[in-house]
Amino acid sequence: MNKTKVVKFGGSSLADSNQFKKVAAIVKADPTRRFVVASAPGKRFSDDVKITDMLYRCYDKAAKGSDFSKEFADIENRFNSIIAELGLDFSLEEEFRHIKNSFAHRAGRDYAASRGEYLNSMILANYLGFEFLDPAGFVFFDESGVFDLNKTLEALTPKLDETQNAVIPGFYGSMPNDTIKTFSRGGSDVTGSIVARAADAELYENWTDVSGFLICDPRIVEDPEPITTITYRELRELAYMGATVLHEDAIFPVRSVGIPINIKNTNHPEDPGTMIVAETADSSKHIITGIAGKKGFSVIQIEKDMMNSEVGFGRNVLRSLEKNGLCFEHMPSGIDTMSVIVATDALVGKERAILDEINFRVHPDKLEIENNLALIAVVGRGMRKQRGTAGKLFSALAEARVNVKMIDQGSSELNIIIGVEEEDFETATKAIYEAFVK
Questions:
Q1: pTM summary value
Q2: Cα(248)–Cα(235) distance, integer angstroms
């Protein structure tokens, strides 16, 4: 691992010329920040429209054969205003002509969406005096559209080895037939992680508009404490439950080689942010590291005497879900009971078919579906060594008069997941925070 940092800047960090100046100051402040991954311009104010959304709308009109000149002119103006305000002797007119022609010939929605990162990175590269690297030639997907890490590293690693400084657009790569393929929304985080892996970086800095992760959702708990250090495993648990500061796939390219990620705030670069690490000997300030949750779950309740001695019972229940194209989230069980937690949206329209299938396969004594369930994950590496964590959790919920509908704790003792009524979600979250943090 060498003295190289890969820095990724999100859409809010590159929304206008003032943000570009902040980004340039950050990059120039540390010569080890050699490779910059850039997003498309985000919102400049609350009612603004992200460039990626503008590109989607423009392309949709083009694909229908409608006149899209006004929509495209708005996109041109957005980029040209950044160039003019930065005082650059630089033009994107040739690029605009090519993109407009490609839209008219239906180059595809992925191509359209990727042009925000492409054009913004060209401007940033010119502003910084860095080389521009198009990921279409270095980030690869296979025939089925799955990202190919090995092929990508084979192409990208030697290129970075011979490059001193570069700006690389995030969010996209190419298919074997040379068409553009994008990651899911927010995929510039993934590109940053890929570049960090290829560069064998000492650190991957992910710059955004928040100073790292917070212990809890600030929309529920006022001014929650920040998380200074979190492990990859803890992050995965919280991200699964809806904690969204970093794209959840962004950790995989760097996790296996131990490259840490630092979530930083472009508007407050002095803040330490959150360090995401493979392992840490440091104990967290509190027993728990974070709390995250979301609504919109249903539970399939199954009861049958002696189900524990019936070979294949669980398999037959899950085959009933599989036959109806349904995944399950959790499956807590007792001697004579089994609860299968599923996303309510995925269940809609399939309730009767699934109940009939389970009845046919396992002949339960009682079978019902209960909706309006919220799940809350309490995550923390400190829970492993602390006695009475579960007792403290449930005491706090009891005092808040919250009825716990479901409990699921993994053998790693890294997290406890509880299910509560959706109407109790905010109350339960506040109660847990009060008990463990305040």
A1: 0.84
A2: 8
